[in-house]
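Dear support,

We are seeing what looks like truncated structure output for some complexes. This example has two components. We would appreciate it if you could run it in full and send us the complete token output so we can diff it against ours.
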Amino acid sequence: DSGVTQTPKHLITATGQRVTLRCSPRSGDLSVYWYQQSLDQGLQFLIQYYNGEERAKGNILERFSAQQFPDLHSELNLSSLELGDSALYFCASSPTPPTEAFFGQGTRLTVV
Amino acid sequence: GIQVEQSPPDLILQEGANSTLRCNFSDSVNNLQWFHQNPWGQLINLFYIPSGTKQNGRLSATTVATERYSLLYISSSQTTDSGVYFCAGRENSGGSNYKLTFGKGTLLTVNP
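Here is the complete output from our reference environment:
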């Protein structure tokens, strides 16, 4: 158990819909990262939050957004979903200063 | 950004065999990690190894930061070692961008 909790584990939804993925980081970790793993793109960094503030952005689509709340949990919002958004979405957290990153079990999103 | 190359892309072994997986980086990196993604999709931390050598049971890893590569050794492989092995590192560029860049992975299949 990495200590990073993601919900839900699986999500099936239709094109055009909006979903929210949730992540609770390890106790004491202020940094949260979101990654997308698809068959053709591999593991891609989406966005990082540190203590409630956006710190870095990767290849995140405009239809996607994220936030980190005062209790440090984070949510990734995916809207106007397309078939190509089907992927495994991971959340990770790390201590400060950053050393080892720990990943949650992932949310497998299927868009039909 | 940095490029991460892993080799070989695929590896098939008989149970009991040894193997070496390699990870090359295009530039200097921090926070180098090795992960195992099991058939259920979970990313399991194997090693946090910015430099030097570490061992954990049948697995060991060596990072030569000055030459920008890392090696993962698996000895006496077991069928449960099957899965995808990823290496990842953070750019050594300072600042607050702490994202990990992943290689495409090595798919290991261990046959009984």
